[in-house]
Amino acid sequence: MGKDLRTYLEELGQKHPQEIMVVDREVDPKFEASGVVEKLEQREKFPLVFFKKLKGSAMPAIINLGASYQRLAVAMGAGSVEEMEKNLAGMERAPVPGREVRRDEAPVKEVILKGAEADLDLAATSAPNMRSIASPWKSL
Question: What is the pTM assigned to this prediction?
Answer without folding.
Answer: 0.69
